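Aim 2 progress. For WD repeat-containing protein 4, the working sequence is reproduced below.
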Amino acid sequence: MASLAVCGESLALCSGKHLIAIHITQDREPFLFDCSEAEQKPKENDNKSEDGASEEKGSDRILAFAFSQSGSLLALTDDNKRLVLFRTEPSWECVSTRWVVRRCTSLHFTSTEDQVLVADKSGDVYSFSVSEPQKPGELKLGHLSMLLAMVVSPDDKYVITADRDEKIRVSILRSPHNIQAFCLGHCEFVSCLSIPLAHPHWLLSGSGDGTVKLWEYESGRRLQSCDLEDPRPTQSPDTDTDQRCAVCRIAVSPDGHHVAVLRERARSVQMFRLENVPEARLTPAEGLTLPHCAWDLTFDPRGRLWVLLQSQESPVLLYSHTRACWELCAEDLALGRALEVLQSRWETVRDPGVVESRFQHLYKVTFDNMASYLQRKQERIEKRPGQLPQSNGAGKRAKRTGRVGPAGQATS
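Predicted structure tokens for this construct:
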């Protein structure tokens, strides 16, 4: 699954094992990074877990990446358990390569840009120093379930983590063993989180249950829940109607007025207005219909919406909000630079190993044991025609005495 981010004057895209960074305001050569050519783990520790057991080598696929708030730093992590830190100014360069304990699912810089927090599939969050780029990570907190998303409050006071078991946990960053609140209400795994910079006390969450919820996270109070429409077209007889579409991305504009929500396998973007009068609420707005399924989306510092598509002809679209609606920007110079790079390197952008859904295996599976039991019982009855049913007590007495009277009753 390809991912997109815009910060400052850079647009970065990760797909498969490649990172592509494009300068969208000047004609510069794009920065390319291939994880398969990155620094390798020392042989004495290679393929060994903490308990000494061997582990399968990864494919160098990038699992998560993030810009720092200023855009001067970027970090990524791959399935070979590397954490790679880059400096983006004045030019792109790799600062360090470190190793994490487990494969990671999300990462986030603090606002002061002195730490990068990494959440992994075992439920742990580690902190890695930015000023000491060779220093190993420090364990900060842990869940009992796989972590899927993580954000840090703009004042660096809280770290907010979401897991497969529908929990959103608000912890104090300086002492993460102190839990400030839980935000509970989703019925499936929580797949994405976002804090609007213009409303730093609110939290938006998306889930496999097809809802977006608005929270006042410091108290754990839910302000609103919005059920999303199914983005798929009308089902054909050959389509698997049981497939569910999780929310895979929530993006908020820098001014905090607009929220874009993307679901898996969607050819549309659902838009909301985030309002604060008379109370906090999400108001549905006119959505965007896309020519192809989207991989990801993000807002740039100017409040324009970038959408990454699964199409070589138009791999990225740019929308601007004017006259109370979203309009497609077709002649923008920044868009032209991005299109030129992505079209010419489509084989790098197109990830042949990508799976259709990265969330499908996370849904709950229920079992109806009673129906199976009743079916087996009926089959046993049908195999013994002519036999009258008897109570368990009568059967036990008959077996104990060895004498059976009329109607299967034990005799004394």
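Helices lie at 333-344, 346-349, 369-382, 392-401. This observation will guide construct design in the next reporting period.
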